[in-house]
Amino acid sequence: MAEETNARVLASGPTIPENPAFVPGRVGIVGLGLMGGSFARALHQGGREVYAWNRTRQTLELAMIDTVDGELTDEAIPTCELVILCGYPAVSIEWLEKMADLISPGAIVIDTVGVKRVICERCFAIAEGRPWYFVGCHPMAGTQYSGYAHSRANMFHKAPMVMVPPPGLDDLTRLDLLDRVERLLSPVGFGQYTVTTAELHDEVIAFTSQLAHVVSNAYVKSPSAKVHKGFSAGSYRDLTRVARLNAPMWTELFLDDADNLSREIGILIDNLQQYKDAIDARDANALEALLREGDRRKREVEGR
After folding, report:
1. Domain with 139 in it: what CATH number?
2. Are strands 133-139 and 108-111 parallel, antiparallel or unpaired?
3. Domain of 54?
4. Residue 154's closest CA among 163, 142, 136, 162?
5. pLDDT value of residue 296
6. Which residues have CB under 8 Å from 126's CB, separation 6+?
7. Residues of the chain above pLDDT 90, percent
8. How far apart are CA 111 and CA 131, in angstroms?
9. pTM passes above 0.85
């Protein structure tokens, strides 16, 4: 479908020229941290040409030894069919604002940022009136570690990818656009693609990801954590895995989704207070009811 799309004018979007300036399949990656490095490795292994930009020159030079084909310079940007923004929200927006006029007609820009409202609002505005597309994306995979050294080619294998298409497209144009994204990313090995709005994404992600990081990070602040060795097993390991995090990045993500995250924290505090009240009162019936309800809800949401 991608090859057919290149040869026609999409009704509500920019024209994809018959002889595009970009090299079909070539990818530019902005930022070689955990996400960008993993995309670069997967795409390179899958036979894609990968060009990259990174603020730290040493990291770029390391990646160019065996993963990156070249530097994403002003001259290379127009040759990329796909550009992936893998930095923090503000850095990604800043890069796109600066380089917007260098991106080729018909090319696609996506991002990997963990919030969607702030970046989609700004990046859709940057793309408006220009002959290329921006699609908001969030790969649902990662690790507690950060940096290129921890990136790996199978990071996203069978993981979900969430996509937010630009507004104002007719159904055919939107389907063609999302199909091109999937085809360009096929070497990465995502297990499924989910299409949503930026608003719904941020509402759900505040619960499924951000709240988990807050709880884990707060949990290890107990004085008891210092003496856990010899007394802990899977429960402690699972609950504390994401306590280790990139503080500057998560601060930006939390504040960009502050309304949704604050609401989820409030719900959790209310629920925890019920457990504390039952335990303080030594009320076995109330405590058992709370535990049974939690067990029931877990089985319900997992479809068991």
Report:
1. 3.40.50.720
2. parallel
3. 2-196
4. 142
5. 96
6. 93, 96, 97, 100, 134
7. 82
8. 18
9. yes
Among 10-14, 136-140, 231-235, which range has the highest average pLDDT? 136-140
In 3D space, the residue among 20, 21, 74, 65 whose CA is nearest the CA of residue 30 turns out to be 74
Do residues 177 and 8 touch, judged by C-beta distance below 8 A?
no
Q: Are residues 62 and 102 in the same domain?
A: yes
Owner of token pair 């060009």: 51
Say whether both 40 and 184 belong to one domain.
Answer: yes
What DSSP designation does 212 have? H
Length of the chain: 304
**In a shared domain, residues 205 and 160:** no
- Answer yes or no: do 172 and 211 share one domain: no
The three state secondary structure string of 37-48 is HHHHHHHHHCCC
Query: CA 88, CA 246: separation in Å to the nearest integer?
Result: 11
Instruction: Give the number of domains in the chain.
Output: 2
Alpha-carbon gap, residue 71 to 284, rounded angstroms: 64
Residues facing 193 on adjacent strands: 161
